[in-house]
Amino acid sequence: xxxxxxxxxxxxxxxxxxxxxxxxxxxxxxxxxxxxxxxxxxxxxxxxxxxxxxxxxxxxxxxxxxxxxxxxxxxxxxxxxxxxxxxxxxxxxxxxxxxxxxxxxxxxxxxxxxxxxxxxxxxxxxxxxxxxxxxxxxxxxxxxxxxxxxxxxxxxxxxxxxxxxxxxxxxxxxxxxxxxxxxxxxxxxxxxxxxxxxxxxxxxxxxxxxxxxxxxxxxxxxxxxxxxxxxxxxxxxxxxxxxxxxxxxxxxxxxxxxxxxxxxxxxxxxxxxxxxxxxxxxxxxxxxxxxxxxxxxxxxxxxxxxxxxxxxxxxxxxxxxxxxxxxxxxxxxxxxxxxxxxxxxxxxxxxxxxxxxxxxxxxxxxxxxxxxxxxxxx
Length: 378
Ligand SMILES: *Cc1c(COP(=O)(O)O)cnc(C)c1O
Hints:
single chain, alpha/beta, Aspartate Aminotransferase, domain 2, seven-stranded mixed sheet, 12 helices, 17 strands, binds pyridoxal-5'-phosphate
């Protein structure tokens, strides 16, 4: 008998140890981890620099609250916005909380409440973030939801243009929908969104909770598109496994989040920001990011060689890739891959999502693709 709520459909193995891309279960079985704890452990498991940062900071100060100045937050914020068209940061603890902050900031700044979101999006499980999420299965049973989110089809310029009016405060999207199926925004849609935002003075919120922090081969995925967000939310990769989230915003938003308007007790505590600082110093580095792009090209090439293109298609960006399996339900395949020693995560019901640590080696990619081939093709 478990004393846990059964709100997760947990897989029947327990991972007890990890190093880099490899993890081991309680029976000592070895797996290649292409989940990274759902795009979280960007530097792999037990990265020595993160271990060191946690050790060092834990001996100094873990938590003191936002009653006091925070040199660690100052430094992390400055590192994150350096050379980006974003000026200020706020730190919280998770992706949903980051999106709540984004929604609150957009409402307060514009004085409006109508926000456009997209089908198959995922923005989190809290009320605002859940209401922004374009998937019925996430919202079912929890109504009434927060009002004034309009959900439009993704990558549909005509539907967007038909819906825009002066009531719209913000448009909110993921550059690559993660939970919704590894669906990337098309260049045409990104251009249309940006043009509409510029023309109507609408704020653009880009949810980079999954795509951010080097996952797609650039610091943030929006950098590879025409999108110029006013607000970027982030979380997953930011702490490399330690819980931390946050938003980045443009200079014009500075006054809107003034003293007393928003906050969180744990957000940006010294332990979390020291870990995130370590992560960012590794990842926001040209050589590191070029390497992520090279690994992405390598993985895509190996997948194309291994899987017949008439049935399997590979989509996504950087090391956030989806293998679409010709309409097959992927749940049984995910189980078989696990039994064969490769951990992956579904995106929707038809796509196998590959989220290796950004530090994955070519040898590990070779081994993972070999397992994929043997399970999918035989
Ligand atoms: C995971 C995710 C969230 C929610 O993050 P939590 O930390 O689970 O609250 C929000 N947006 C996107 C795009 C995500 O992938």
